[in-house]
Write a structure and sequence with these properties.
Order of helices and strands: HEHEEEHEHEHEEEHEHEHEHHHHHHH
Largest sheet: 8 strands, mixed
Number of helices: 15
Helix content: 40-55%
Length: about 375
């Protein structure tokens, strides 16, 4: 009798052991998604990702989000997010899923992740990534939603995705598109473009991001997808200057069209773009139009033009953006470095003029004068 009972207990123990082992293996196989950045766009992406992983059996339900710690209303922002499930400073009025966990340590957020989504102002990327060197899973891949360029130690300009690859030794995809964060967070219909040479990774990321209102297209033209995201912010400054100077819709439309032509020419010159169709995806013309009529770059540029040089971009940024950053002026500086190094400033009069206006080398009222003999008109 005791022998039979012992055998049953032994068999039950083995069954429990193998069952738990199987569960552990299944849990280990689940893909973990981490988000680095918690501004309005980062928090919006966290809302989407946190919701999507709950309904997809491929992914771990917990989504860690790196939050640069700051005090808001006397409390730590991470504590507010983790108790109220809302980023009250950068995305007020939009609840985050309970499975999104705010963490102030970037290494803790990313070290065990399979997919690491970077959503930061591009000028902060290098310093944020440095603590992650040698700390990530070897088969992880990054995703950059950062719109700008990277200045290497030897003064050259590179794409943010290349910086991530070279610094962290992981593959890096990109996501760009006509996406004003507050509208996406509200569930308004829009599109985005994933740039990925690896089809499997691109489609996996699509599962992480796509919803019935946030529709995704995957393209292999990675450099062009990414460059469009940075360059459109510069053109948006030009559109904002037009608004601030009370120019009409015709003038603003001309600036946007010339901007598009310079974006395409820039990509042809530096990235040997293979498919011009990419410019007509959400990352291209759609993002350009949206940013030139909405968004913070246009808004700050309009205020700059109305002030007629009496206030700097930095001063207006602090006045208008509640701690957020405009990326257009920095991207314009980076692009100008590239153009100057290749003696191409005269071939890109719009991009060049916008940079010179931002650094106050020329008055904002000179913008249109510099476009009257644009290469497109010759």
């Amino acid at each position: 009798m005791f022998s039979k009972l012992f055998n049953k207990l032994f068999n039950l123990k083995n069954f429990i052991f193998f069952f738990l082992k199987k569960i552990f293996r299944m849990a280990s196989a689940l893909k973990r998604v981490a988000i680095v950045g918690s501004g309005n766009w980062g928090s919006t992406i966290a809302k989407i990702v946190g919701t999507n992983v709950l309904s997809n059996s491929k992914f771990d339900h917990k989504v860690k989000m790196y939050v640069y710690e700051e005090i808001v209303d006397g409390r730590k922002l991470t504590d507010i997010i983790n108790t109220q499930h809302e980023n009250i400073k950068y995305l007020p009025g939009h609840k985050l899923p309970d499975n999104v966990v705010a963490v102030p340590d970037v290494v803790e957020v990313a070290h065990d992740a399979d997919i690491i989504i970077f959503v930061l102002p591009h000028q902060f990327m290098a310093n944020t990534c440095k603590p992650l060197i040698g700390k990530l899973k070897s088969d992880a891949f990054g995703v950059s939603l950062c719109k700008g360029f990277y200045i290497t130690d030897d003064g050259k300009i590179d794409l943010i995705s290349n910086m991530v690859k070279n610094l962290l030794k992981i593959e890096c995809l990109v996501v760009m598109g006509a996406n004003i964060a507050s509208e996406v967070a509200a569930g308004q219909f829009c599109e985005a473009t994933i740039g990925s040479r690896n089809k499997e990774q691109g489609l996996l990321l699509k599962q992480v991001l796509q919803t019935d209102f946030f529709r995704i297209v995957v393209r292999q033209d990675v450099e062009v997808v990414e460059a469009c995201g940075a360059l459109k912010n510069i053109v948006a400054l030009g559109a904002g200057f037009c608004d601030g100077l009370n120019y009409g819709d015709n003038t603003k439309a001309a600036v946007i069209r010339l901007g598009l032509m310079e974006v395409m020419k820039f990509c042809d010159e530096f990235y040997k773009s293979r498919e011009h169709r990419t410019f007509f995806e959400s990352c291209g013309v759609a993002d350009l139009v949206t940013t030139c009529y909405g968004g913070r770059n246009r808004r700050v540029a309009e205020a700059f033009a109305r002030a007629l040089g009496q206030k700097t971009i930095d001063e207006l940024e602090k006045e208008l953006l509640n701690g957020q950053k405009v990326q257009g002026p920095e991207a314009a500086r980076e692009v100008n470095m590239m153009l100057k190094a290749h003696n191409l400033e005269d071939d890109f009069p719009l991009l060049t003029s916008i940079h010179r206006i931002c650094v106050r080398e020329i008055p904002v009222t000179q913008l249109i004068e510099n476009l009257r003999n644009h290469p497109e008109h010759l």
